[in-house]
Specification:
This protein is 18% helix and 28% strand. The chain is an alpha+beta fold. The protein has one domain: Beta Complex (Metal Binding Protein, Guanine Nucleotide Exchange Factor, Chain A).
Length: 187
């Protein structure tokens, strides 16, 4: 597992740009359910958003990291506040939006998209272990606001409109029973 001060630097020419479905299916599910998961995205405690450079998986102006669901979302100078927008992600999970509030209430341009595994999928997997739902995957970026004092609304939230790949559709269509009965052929 990567420490809180570790970061992943992608080679020149590589850009980490997963869809919402890929973030949940390939990264958050792995973190929540596999004992040894791909650790390209580090686990971090809360930091100011401008402190994420060099500590998170950064790609362009986007920063990715895991944190625990119940972890405190405040820092010594501010806190992350939910803005009341939650979007479902193809029955896999949901995405909540938060904005960083500085001091006593100054809204900044920093936005966090917090990805959760849906409770339906947790029940469907019949995995009763508490660790199944203790992780969230966070994507943080600084939003460009063209007007001074503009506030966030549903229309401002990024919806990349990407579709699930055919391979992900096949994976999502498999029942847990199908996965349990899958084995290598005997030769």
């Amino acid at each position: 597992m990567m420490g809180s001060e570790s970061s992943v630097n992608l080679p020149p020419g590589f850009y980490f740009s997963p869809t919402d479905e890929e973030l949940i299916l390939h990264f958050l599910y792995s973190k929540a359910s596999l004992p040894y998961h791909p650790n390209i995205i580090p686990h971090l405690s809360q930091h100011h958003p401008w402190e994420l450079y060099g500590k998170s998986l950064s790609s362009g102006n986007q920063h990715y990291f895991f944190t625990e669901v119940k972890e405190n979302r405040s820092t010594e100078n501010g806190y992350w506040k939910e803005i009341g927008v939650t979007k479902p992600i193809n029955n896999l999970g949901m995405k909540k939006y938060l904005v960083f509030i500085l001091g006593e209430g100054t809204e900044t341009n920093w936005v966090m998209e917090e990805y959760h595994i849906s409770s339906y999928e947790s029940r469907r997997s019949q995995n009763q272990d508490e660790s199944w739902s203790k992780w969230v995957l966070c994507k943080v970026y600084e939003k460009n606001v063209s007007q001074e004092g503009a506030s966030y609304s549903d229309e401002d939230i990024d919806d990349n409109g990407t579709e699930v790949s055919w391979l992900d559709e096949v994976f999502m269509s498999l029942d847990d029973d199908d996965l349990d009965q899958t084995s290598l052929p005997n030769y």
